[in-house]
Design goal:
By secondary structure, this protein is an alpha/beta fold. It has one domain: Aldolase class I (TIM Barrel), CATH 3.20.20.70. It has eleven helices and eight strands. The structure holds pyridoxine-5'-phosphate (PXP).
Length: 254
């Protein structure tokens, strides 16, 4: 059986976080995106938050104009974001939950509870030829509802698993890992393309790369942080290498 390729999407939000700390123009997230692509990224992810705390509207427009690889536009399901994404025409839109007071995207989107509100969003984006991805936890009911909503892609939220590993909570980590393994299988059998992301580092990216159902990882914070020490091109190459090492062991799960 041939090994499905595993794409790396580099999230450049936190280059913009640093830029905004001084309200200036550097470091430029678009320059970071171009460099990440040169170093081997297969796509670029950016999250236009309602409060514009990192990526701004003009960043998104420039990313779309200037990068040669697919743009994954993360956003909340609001009328304003729908309008901006339809005007930007990215390759993909990843719908995420958003609360103003959170530090980062803390949990998955509740597609079961918000089915009625989400259905027209997914339909509108599908009609515009934009690939819709739903950022959800690896919960069977959420996965089944994502398929019913006719989103072609889900992104599994890996934050709970990664946090448990970092905190040394081994039992919780193994429960969360099993949920990801089972969820990826269920999603693929429901006809969904499966991505994953949030909180991944070299170690967890290598582990999750061994799941054959997963074809894309979206990684930001750790890669941008590592760039302070080794440079962005090197941190992207190191992440790619970790994923490739993990992918080679994927037979275990076939
Ligand atoms: N995928 C989604 C949908 C996200 O919201 C985020 C965080 O913005 C990521 C991936 C990347 O997470 P991290 O920055 O922790 O690598």
């Amino acid at each position: 059986m041939s090994i499905p390729p595993l794409r790396l999407g580099v999230n450049v939000d936190h280059v913009a976080t640093l830029r905004n700390a001084r309200a200036g123009t550097t470091p430029d997230p678009v320059r970071a995106a171009l460099l990440a692509i040169e170093a081997g990224a297969d796509g670029i992810t950016a999250h236009l938050r309602e409060d514009r705390r990192h990526i701004r509207d003009d960043d998104m427009a420039r990313l779309k104009r200037e990068i040669s690889k697919p743009l994954n536009f993360e956003m909340a399901a609001t009328a304003d974001m729908l309008r901006i994404s339809l005007a930007t025409k990215p390759h993909a839109v990843c719908l995420v939950p958003e609360r103003r007071e959170e530090l980062t995207t803390e949990g998955g989107l509740d597609v079961v509870g918000q089915h009625n509100a989400l259905a027209p969003f997914v339909a509108r984006l599908n009609d515009a030829g934009i690939r819709v991805s739903l950022f959800i936890s690896a919960d069977p009911s959420q996965i089944e509802m994502a398929a019913k909503l006719k989103a072609p892609v889900i992104e599994i939220h890996t934050g709970a698993w990664c946090d448990a590993l970092v905190d040394g909570k081994t039992e919780k980590a193994s429960t969360e890992w099993q949920r990801i393994v089972d969820g990826a299988k269920l999603a693929q059998s429901a006809g969904l393309e499966v991505h994953a992301g949030h909180g991944l580092d070299y170690k967890t990216a290598q582990i999750i790369a061994a799941l054959p159902q997963i074809v894309e990882l979206n990684i930001g914070y750790f890669t941008i942080g590592e760039a302070l020490f080794v440079g962005l091109a090197q941190s992207v190459r190191d992440m790619r290498a970790a994923m490739d090492r993990g992918r080679k062991t994927l037979q275990v799960y076939l």
